[in-house]
Design brief:
Number of helices: 8
GO molecular function: heme binding
Organism: Pararhizobium mangrovi
Distance between the termini: 45 Å
Number of strands: 9
CATH superfamily: Catalase core domain
CATH class: Mainly Beta
Number of domains: 1
Protein name: Catalase family protein
Structural class: alpha+beta
Shape: globular
Radius of gyration: 19 Å
Strand content: 15-25%
CATH topology: Catalase HpII,  Chain A, domain 1
Largest sheet: 9 strands, antiparallel
Length: about 350
Amino acid sequence: MSYLRYSPEIESPAADEQKTIDGIVSGMKEQSRTVERRDGEAVRASHAKSTACVTGELRIADGLPEELAQGLFATARTLPVAVRFAQGPGEKLNDRVSVHRGMSIKVFGVGGEKMEGHTSDVQDFVLATGTTFPSGTAKGFLRDGTVIGKATGLPEEAKSAVASFARNLNRVLERAGTVSPMADFFGHPFYHPLAESYFSQAPMRFGDYVAKLAAVPVSPEQAALRDWRLDARADDNGFRHAAIAFFGEHDAVFEIRAQLWTDAKTQPIEDASVEWSSDETPFRTVATLVLPKQAAYGDERVRYFDKRMTFRPAHSLEAHRPLGSIMRARLQVYAALSDFRHSENGIEAADPSRIEDIPR
């Protein structure tokens, strides 16, 4: 199979992209202010409600072929990681509002050339359920984000009803052999958070190549959770309690897989709403993420993860530079909203460079 090479010319920003990004930042700050007025504190503008805050190891595979032995994955080694699982919205909602979910990974001791402005020796990967980002481009995200922002002040019962409608819509579509990424974004099934796969959704540089990444659960204990469904009527924080219970008894193991770029027409860099067919270009394993049995929600650690620590696409090696319209927006949006959150709460942001910096 022939893999396309990375070069700066594969990106093609819109002429008015900065104006669009400024609009996203402004709109999401206003959304955050709405939540702050209601809840008494500023929270993350996305993935606000954590499910598990854990540490572990990233074990990079030995003997990878040249096209996969790139960047962080160039040589076999084991690196410490911190991982935060969370619900998707920028507000802490009852689990009846089951929407998309996130998995953020911070890899320590990565070495190598960092992106401009990034000084800590870490690599962050910000992943989510769903193989694509429904809005596709920064302009699409500004459009969709405006709708989400206006809905932030609605009662939780209304948000639960929207999520329920979206889940039911996808059940109907599934019978016809398809699903709606947008419906999944607003109404994700009540799956166990450790039985899910998580995706970069948008492409990134992969050394000399380009790829999307996935984290796929592979342990037998996680496979046994495939039929698990939350009874949201019984527990407002059921996803968190389920994750805590799992980590109290078992290790969680995910394979990190890369899907390399092979076709500029069917796999556009600038539109993250287009799925790269895994039939044409399969995801291939480059590392194993091992999160051992542990207390997944200790008070001191959760305060550090939730209130101080940041996960950003901009915390990256140059070899894994985020690519495309959505990712270029995220480079600025995550930083601006993190600064806003920490300033509003009067808390200093933490940018740890060693796993020892994280409370045990």
